[in-house]
Each structure stands twice: as C-alpha cells, then as structure tokens.
Design a protein that fits this description.
The structure is a homodimer. The first copy, chain A, contains 23 helices and 6 strands. Chain A is mainly α. A 3-stranded mixed β-sheet of chain A has the order 1-2-3. In chain A, helix 20 packs antiparallel against helix 21. The longest helix of chain A has 31 residues. The first copy, chain A, is elongated. At the A-B interface, helix 12, helix 13, helix 15, helix 16 and helix 17 of A face helix 12, helix 13, helix 15, helix 16 and helix 17 of B.
Chain lengths: 451, 451
C-alpha cells in the first residue's frame, strides 16, 4: 500500500486535535510524499495542511500536486498567504496555476505578487502551455565567455539558490544570444584560471520557444540532457526545460495517446480523482460518435437482407468476420501511431508503410482464412460457404491492415493527432466495409444467390 | 526530414571514395546524431563507420544504437577492436550487449576485456535486464562522512572521468552501507571546511536491486531525481540508475503497453526496422488466439438461429450491439490499465473501481440505448424490436464496462501484465456474451418468439 494512504488516518486525527504536533511531524516527510498525502485529502483539509507545512518546504510540496487541487487550495487560503506561496513557486509552475485561476481570485492575488515574480509571470504567460515556452523556467544560470573557471564557480555559488539547475551554465553574448554551454562538472574539474570560452561546448542543442513539448521530450531523450535551453526567434536564450519536467511530459503524452487509442478523450486527472461527470463526458462523446458510425452496419445489412434468408449459415460467420477486420486494423493503427509518436517514421514514408501493411494483411488474411475454413468445416458448413468465409477473411484482414495504417498517416499529414485513429474508431470503419466485402464475396461465389 | 537521412547519401559516397575525409567529417557530429546515422545504414557499412569514429567518441555513439545493431557490429569488426570498444562502454550497456552475443563471439571477446571491466560484467550480469540491478551502473561517486567539502570536491575532480554522474556523491559507511547523499551543487556552495556528514541528506530515496524497472521509473519521476541509488538486501550500495536511462525505460514501457493494448506482442525494434517475419509472428499469435475466441460468436448465434428466421429485423442490429459492448469495454480497460501502470490505483481498490464502472456503464448504456431507440425508430422497426435494442444496449454496455475494468484488475492480482486485457481481447470476450444478452432480451420482450 502506498505510504500516503497508510498515514492518512493519523494525519486526519492530528489535524483536528493537535495541529502543532502535526506541524512538527510534517517536517520529517519528503516533499514528494507530502504531495502524495495532500492528494488523498479533501481540498479543505489539504489547504489546512499546506498552511502547516514549514515555510522552506511549502512551495516545493505545492508544485508537485495536481493543478486542480492547487486551484482549490489557493482559492481557500487567505489572499496574502496565497500570493506568498505563488512567489515561492518555480516560475513555470506559477504560470500554469495562474492560468487556471478564476478571474476574481486572479484579480485579488496578482497585485500582491513580488515585482520580479509578476514580471516573469507576464513573460512566460505569453507561451501556450504545451510548448517549450510554456514548459520552461527563466531561472537558468547565465555565464559570460570572458569568465575564468574560478569566477564562474564563484558566480554559481552566489546565485545558486534562485536557479532551477546549476549543473549547466549557459554562455550568453551581451545581446543574450546563446553562444555555448559548460557543465558544472567541467568547471569543477578545470584549472582555476581556465577561460569559460575555451572549455564551453559551442555546438549547443537548443529548441525554439514555440516547439511542441513532444518535440522537446524527443530531443532531451535523444541527447541525454539534464536541461535543454530554449531560444526565441532571434536565438536569444529565454529559458530552460529540465529533465524532471520532461519525465512528466513523456508520461502525460503517453497517457494521452493511450486514452485516445482506447477512444477516451484525454484527461489530466488520475482515474479515481476525475469526477464521475467529467469522466462520463470524456467517454460519452467518442462512444456516441462511434455508435452513430456503427449504425451504418445496419444500413449495409439491410441492403443485403435477402442473402441471409437464402443462406442462413452466412449469418453465423458475420460477427467473426467483421471483428477480424477490426482487430487486424487495431494492430496496424497501434503500430503506426506509436512509431509516429516516437519519431521513428514520418508521414512522408507512407508508401513504404502501406506496402508493408499490404503484404502483412495478405499473410495474416491467408492465415486467418485457413483457420476460418477449418472452423467452418467443423460446423459442417456448405463447401461454398466455407470458401466464401476463407476468401472474405483474406479481403477483410487486408483491408483492415491498410485502413488501420492509412488513417493515422492521413491524420498526421493534416497535422491532427494520429491517435484519433483509435482501435474502436478503425474497427467501426472496417466493420461497415467488412460487411460489404463479405457479402460481395458471397454473391460472387455462391451459385444462385441473388441480391 | 530527420538530419540523419539528409546526410546519408554523402556519408555513403565518402565511405567508398575517401574514408579519411569522412573520419574528419564525423568529428563534427553530435554523438546522438552519429548514432541516428548508424541506424540508417546496413550493418556492414555501420561497422566500417564505427571504426572511423574518433576514439574518444566511439563508445558514446555505440551505446546509443539499438542492441541488434550493436551485436552485428561487434560480430563484424576484429575481436581486439571489439573488446576495446566494450571496455570503453558504460558498465550497464556492456552487460546488455554481452547478454545478446552468441556463445562463440562471447568466448572470443570476453578473455580480451580489461580486468576491472570483466569483474563489473560478472557483478552486473547477475541481475535480470528489466530490474533496477540490470539497469544500473556501478560507476557512482562514493564519499566518506568524515570528508570536508574541500576534500570531497578534490575527490570529485580526481575520479570524475570514470563516473556516470558526479552530481550526487553517495556517503557510504566502511561496510558500504548507504548513509546519505550530498549534491555537487551543495558541495560547491559549502564552506571549504564544512563536513560532509553535516550537510548530507540522510533520508535517501533508494531502491532494491531486484525491483522492477517500472517501479524505478515511478520513483525517479515522483522524487524528481537525477539519479537513484540501488542497494542490495543488506542496504549496501551497489550502483546507480540515472534519469537519462529512465527516460528510455519510461518510453519503452509505454510502447510495450501501447502495443499490448493493440493486441501486438511487444517488440523492441522500431516498426520499420523489425523484419517482416518477426512482425508477422508478433501479430499472428494474438490475432489467431482472438479469432479462435471470436468463433464462439458463431456458436452463440447457432444456438439462437431460429430467432432471426422469426424476426429478421433482429439481425440488422447485431453488429451495432456487439460493437457497442466492445467499445465501452475498450474504454474501461484502457483507463484501468493506464492507471495501474502509473500507480494511481491498486488492484486492492477493485470494489471502488467496479462500483464506478457499474454506474458509468448504466449511464453510457442508457445514453446509447436512447440513441439506438431513435435509430431503430428511423428504420421503421417494430416497437418491440426498438425496445429490445434499447434494453439490450443498456445491458451490453454495462457488461462491457464491468468486464473491461475487471479483467486488468484480475490479471494484476495474479501478477500478470494488465495490458494483456487489450481492447480487441475484451471486445471478443464481450461480443460472445453480448449476443447472449441481446437475444435473451429479445426472447423475454418479443411476444410469441421461441428459442
């Protein structure tokens, strides 16, 4: 059982009977554990606990709880305390929180912020939340080319407290253009008089402030960085993104893709914290849309209604055949969507991908066709029905693979999220066409059958 | 277009005409870009390029290419060069590579390794690849409690070259027990005579060597660490895992889950690098298994065959109804599987989860039932068929939600991967029971209908 749920009853008891004892106890927790504890409490209790947390830990704990809980707490505590808490937060987290506050609360708290903090808020607020600019903090360590290693380390010591990370120093020109990077490791190992300009790495990997956070995650992962500098359109350095934030981004992006693949609109709150109604909305939208799409299976069947009266055995294989198309399509779309997300393939490689899926669809179709033929044989089906099932399976599975691979590629080429081509969505698409393939094959293979 | 594909033709041309020019050109590349380039080449070409890479970059580049390509290259180049390359690699990457070599190559290369490297290989090789022990490196920085800040920094300078990261120093007892941790940032800011024992953090977050790598990723993410110390059963420190390795782990685990959710057996190679036959195997296994499961839809339909002869309109709604169960089930299983993977929910909370899904299933079922009723009305269906469709939808969607949530929880409580309860798998399970629910409802609601 997670730690936070274990101590929950004790914390609740102390909160009402002996808050000062609780204050002392909280000092012993790791900030991440305290954050986990807060998420297990009612917002009102969480707000009381936040006020009890020692000053030097409070902001660090607060930054790690979900944004909806942050909003409840900031709204619940006295305004000056809220402003003080915001002042102490990292600049990037502060921006995200302020963006979620209602106008009244915002209007009351913002005037109470520190001048420097208000300025940062304004600068960072200009970038959308899911871009490099929205994820960065301005608290990076800047160095000058003409510093010696000794001067640089002295500078690090002087400003370290206010920086998000001091493991990289970024060497800027007087116009704040990014010239190079030097790691603290290198500074520590250098001779005191060595020049920063001589030891800095000039081939710096950076990212534009308007880049998508998914791109940031791919770059940090590829180059094994602890932090990535963010530059504006004139290559002036405006901030950094640290790897711990990117671990969260990578996890959020994977969650978003996984939810989309399961035909659930992405949500930020954990499953059990999301309200019933918000979860219902996230699910109902897609489910109804797919349901309406699936009603076309009825339209297709209506068109061929007479066939089942002539050969009732055809119906026995109907769910089997259409689900086979959906399943092979789900496989293809899953593979293509994940590869696109990881940057392993590009939409421009569509021909290579589709050609591979055509061969794959044929191979899988022949395999399932053989198994289907055998199954029909065991049910004593008529030989022409057996053949119809086998041939239709090849066509349907092939079709499923091609559609499953093509839809995400098409979405990507229109700059939409490929993960909208979820398994259920592809399956519905393939279901309708699968019925037509199946009954089309039946019409051409079974003698005397009339539409 | 990615950088590596852009320079590919030039690199190929230089490789045959002017290798020495190429050697100079390679020096200008970032190691991560060189690694990307190697993955675009044939193994034979890649081996030649690896030999041209400057000595001090070679191992760093080599560590970043996929393991199957590492094996091809090591097997292709002269044995002494291969051994030298292995000597230069990080200990954790070396172990993974050696595990993949065939016995002959291993027998020829291992005797050529350095003594220290061979010893590490032996120590690390004892841990399974996907555990903390299998992912760690032994090259961490150890400090003693009685050191001063100045002595500690001097020690850092002396040993830095051989350490995976020097940003954390781990304070060990004479018996190598983990006592505390101190960051380089803190050492740099301390007064020279400050004692390590006074400034170290004693509440160290660590992990046992036999912990699963997924747990390691959750811990590093929760506590925002750059590196996590790994201890043995006696709390002696044996290694560290760094955050850059964990970014890869998180991405691999997400890929594995996503593939499983799409009913594809997980694979390590990127989609277009995987051979056709290996991909076919990964897909055919699950597809055939699900297909055989889906043949039970035929068995169920056979049981009720007479019903469709009496009321043919029932058939028009069949694919619609069973796909609705599958889709709502896919939503539930996706949500539960992802929440389990993120540690947001535990299998022990099954009652809360299932109760939520029962209410969700009823709400979604009533919604789809209403839409289905309307659709049946527009098709001029018989009123009792309309009611049958609506009532069956409530039952099927409810059943889909419950099964979709229950299957991953059951798998987890047997210590199996919940992601095996993929959308297609759940859908097949729900398809068969959906037919029985539908036709059971029809039998009880349509007068004079006989089984």
């Amino acid at each position: 059982m997670p730690f936070a749920r274990l101590v929950l009853p004790d914390v609740r008891a102390l909160l009402t009977t002996a808050p000062s004892e609780l204050r002392e106890a909280l000092d012993e927790f790791h900030p991440a554990d305290l954050a986990e504890l807060l998420t297990q409490l009612e917002p009102g209790e969480a707000a009381e606990i936040v006020r009890l947390i020692p000053d030097e830990l409070r902001a660090e704990v607060f930054e790690q709880i979900p944004e909806d809980l942050q909003v409840s707490i900031v709204t619940a505590i006295p305004r000056p305390e809220a402003a003080h808490l915001l002042d102490e937060m990292a600049a990037d987290d502060r921006v995200d929180l302020v963006a979620d506050l209602d106008d009244e609360t915002k209007g009351q708290i913002l005037p109470l912020l520190g001048i420097e903090e208000a300025r940062e808020l304004h600068a960072l607020g200009a970038y959308p939340e899911n871009t490099a600019g929205g994820r960065m903090t301005t608290e990076f360590m800047a160095l000058r080319e003409d510093m010696t290693a000794d001067e640089a380390i002295a500078h690090v010591r002087a400003v370290a407290e206010h920086k998000e990370t001091i493991y990289y120093g970024y060497v800027l020109s007087p116009g704040r253009e990014l010239r190079g990077v030097v790691s603290l490791a290198l500074l520590v190992q250098a001779k005191p008089a060595d020049k920063v300009s001589a030891m800095m790495e000039t081939r710096v990997v950076d990212v534009r402030a308007d880049a998508d956070q998914e791109e940031v995650a791919l770059i940090i992962r590829k180059y094994d960085l602890l932090a990535l500098p963010v530059v504006d359109e004139k290559h002036r350095m405006v901030g950094i993104i640290t790897v711990d934030d990117i671990l969260d981004v990578a996890s959020e992006e994977a969650t978003e893709d996984i939810h989309r693949l399961g035909a659930v609109a992405p949500m930020e709150e954990p499953y059990l914290r999301a309200s019933f109604w918000s979860l219902l909305r996230k699910r109902a939208g897609w489910l109804v849309l797919i349901f309406v799409g699936a009603t076309f299976t009825g339209t297709a069947l209506r068109h061929y209604e007479g066939l089942f009266e002539q050969v009732p055995a055809l119906m026995l294989f109907l769910p089997l055949l259409i689900s086979s198309g959906g399943n092979s399509g789900a496989q293809s779309s899953t593979l293509v969507i994940r590869s696109l997300a990881l940057g392993e393939i590009q939409a421009a490689q569509w021909f290579t991908i589709l050609w591979r899926e055509v061969r794959m669809g044929l191979a899988l179709g022949v395999l399932l066709g053989a198994v289907g033929y055998l199954r029909a044989y065991l049910w004593d089906a008529d030989p022409t029905v057996m053949l119809t099932v086998a041939v239709a399976l090849v066509g349907i599975v092939l079709w499923g693979c091609v559609i499953g691979a093509a839809l995400p590629l098409i979405l990507r080429s229109f700059n939409l999220d490929p993960a909208f081509a979820s398994g259920p969505f592809v399956a519905t698409f393939v279901d309708v066409s699968g019925i037509m393939i199946y009954l089309g094959v039946a019409l051409s293979m079974i003698p005397n059958l009339r539409a």
